[in-house]
Structure formats: structure tokens, C-alpha cells
Amino acid sequence: MPLLEELNRRIDDKTSDLVGLTVDLIRIPTINPPGDAYTPCAEFIGRRLLSRGFQVEYVRAHDTPGDSDRFPRTNIIARREGRAPGKTVHFNSHIDVVEAGDGWTLDPFGGDVRDGKIYGRGSCDMKGGLAASIIAAEAYIEAYPDFFGAIEISGTVDEESGGFGGVAHLASKGYFSRPRVDHVIIPEPLNKDRICLGHRGVWWAEIETFGKQAHGSMPFLGDCAVRHMGSVLSAFEDELYPQLAQKRTEMPVVPEGAKQSTMNINSFHGGEGEPGTHGKPLDYSGLPSPNVPDSCRMVIDRRFLIEEDLGTVKGEVVGILESLKSSRENFNYAITDLMEVLPTMTDKDAPVVKAVSDGISEVLGRQPDLVISPGTYDQKHIARIGHLHDCIAYGPGILDLAHMADEYVGIEDMVQSAKVMSYAIHALLTEGRA
CA-CA distance, 397 to 191, in Å (whole number)? Predict the structure, then answer.
């Protein structure tokens, strides 16, 4: 097909530009938390797309978690209208990255290019995907300036901390709903030959057990909240974890271990001498107080399957707590919901799935694997708030490298993914047209 050959040629010619754009994005340290450099990064993207004929809008998510004048939650949405009305294809990428951490052999924000790879925090997750989507859109507009419909590109914040100041905020404002948008591709690093249809569900909750404070040398005068929490952990090990191991899904979740229900203990806090408790500074390094703790807190991270009901998921935990309340002397607890997201899975016959699948077949010469992510990403907000279900994740990068030291993205993977994305743009904007 001449047009697709022209797209491939243009993207090949833009390889150096693709590399340079990715390096420039990596060098903007958009670390979350706290939300560094969001505005400079959004404005960098905006300047580029404005120069390519896009209309650019910046949307700050006021009063969302973490937003402040020092760390504003600044999102960018760019839109390029075609010659005539039609469908809209939207590429959404998050611009925030997790902290670099230890173990790097290269500058995590240097954007080093070596042996066909670009290294740096966010290279894989997901500034390489963002750059690939920009190059794909620009190549398509150059090759087919009289296209019908519209192409949108967004750079959004806070995905790594739930997306509430990013996609969730924009979805609540109608940016991810029809009739504005019809198809969404999120260039998360799920590997260039896989299409991610959705994700498992998640329930985060904080459990607190209570006790009575007393001197640590006379614990018999108090009641240790940590010991009460120990009974909760023991019950989880004996009762809940074996139950979860038996729950399996028909969803094509990767990796294999995520095809069952899981629960992680995200954090555990108990005792009077902890940094950050009772006004102690976070850098406090003194000895713990010699007290019997009267409170212990644990945050659980329960990932559940499309076959499970959220009420049942919560009931399994509450049932254990209630049983302990009845059987253990002086046991009392509180439980607080922190986050809940239902599983989502786009229909494998949806237009965006078919378009990207055909693109992978055309560019890579093989059929893609259709997968489900073990963890959530911003598709959750597009589905539950925007009520838009023609949405997938597809992008370059190896998922296992995300958040790792010496994170990288392959240049050839980005080039091939950009070709797939440009193919998908054409397929979705010309669907149903003679």
C-alpha cells in the first residue's frame, strides 16, 4: 500500500529525531513524588506540537493530591484537526517517572545512547512511548495532510501515584469521552508485539489495630497493638493466602503468577519511636521509645480478577478481622479504603484492537499477543470516568525494565512501534470510508 510505504519511509527518516526527542524528555526529571518539572516538561511537548500545527492546551489539576504552586499538576493536551470531521484518535502518555533509586551505572537523567538503546529513568516507562507516538502522528500528518477526523496527544501527570491529577482529572472534565474522543492508545511499555486490553482490579486499604500504652519494661500493664496485628498476619497466612492461590482467571494476564488473586503488604507501622510519628521529623534517628504501642497500621494491596466481586474481596478481609474480634481478647480494629478500581478488559474485537493488531502484523510480520496487565494504569480512569472502552495500551519497551536501575528502551523497538501507531491512525481515521 503506497501510503503505508510512505509512512514507513518517513518514520525511518525521523529516527534521529525520535532519539533526540526521547533523550530530551529523559533529561527533564519529572520525578513523582513530589512532582518535579511537570510544567517544564508539558511546555516542552507543547512547543514542539504547536510548531507542528497542533492546538495546545495546558490543564492544571487544582486541588488534586500533591498539587501546589511549587508542584503544579500540569497536563498538556494537543489536538490537530483534519480537513473534515471524523473520528478522533488519542495517544495518552504519562510524563511522570519514579525516583531513580540506587544501582545505576549511568546518569539516570543523562539520556545516554549506547548500542542501540537509550538509557535513563523513564526511557522505557514511558517517555520512549510518548516520543514514538509524537513521531507517528507527525509522520502521518506529513504523509496525509488531508486526513479526516482529529489526532490528539496528551502528556499527563501522576500515573505512578494513581493518576488522580492527570487522566482522572481530565476524564472528569470530558477530555476522554465521546464525542470528543473515539479511540485511545496508551503507549505503556508492554513490548512491541503485545496489545494490553486492560488490567486486574485493585483494592488498597489501611488496617489499624489498637492497644493500650504502657512502659516497655512492664508490658503486662498495657496491650500491644503490634501483637494484635501479628494475629491478623497469622490469619492471613493460614486462611486468606491459601484461598487467593485457588482463584484463577480466564483473563490473559501476564506474567503467569498474576493469573491468580494476590495480596501484598505494602507497609507496616507500629511503635512510638518511628520517624514521622507524633511530630518526629522524617530524618529522626533516635532510639525507639520504651513504650507498649497503642496503634499499629498496615496497608494491604489486593489485586483481584474480573471473575471476582469487589464486595466479596473486601468481605474476605473484614471477615477475618471480625472473627479475631470475637475470639481474641481486647482485639479491636479500624479499616479504611484507600483506593478501589474494578478490573477492565477491552473487547478483543474493538476497533482499536483490530487496528493495532493489523499494524503489528504488517510491520512485524506476526500476530500480537493479547494480554492483561497485572497492575493498573490510566486506562482505569478512561473506562470508569470517561466511559470510553475503545482503549488499549501499546508501546515500545520491555515491561520488566520499568522502575529498574539502568532502565532503557531500544531504538529499533521505538521505530517499529511508531510505524504500528501510524498504521493504526490510518486504519481508525479511514474506517468505514470508501
Answer: 5
> Domains (ranges, CATH) in the chain?
2-199+343-429 (3.40.630.10), 201-341 (3.30.70.360)
Buried b (16+ CB within 10 A) or exposed e, 250-274: ebbbbeeebbebbbeeeeebbbbee
- Reported as a single tens digit per residue, the pLDDT across 357-415 is 999 999 999 999 999 999 899 999 999 999 999 999 999 999 889 999 999 999 999 99
Residues 6+ apart with CB under 8 A from 266: 204, 299, 300, 301
CB 298 within 8 A of CB 223: no
Intra-chain end-to-end CA distance of the chain, in Å: 15
Number of Cβ within 10 Å of residue 103's Cβ equals 9
Q: How far is 179 from 194, CA to CA, in rounded Å?
A: 28
* 188: its cell numbers: 505503556
User: Angle at the Cα of 372 (from 159 to 176), degrees rounded to 5?
Assistant: 45
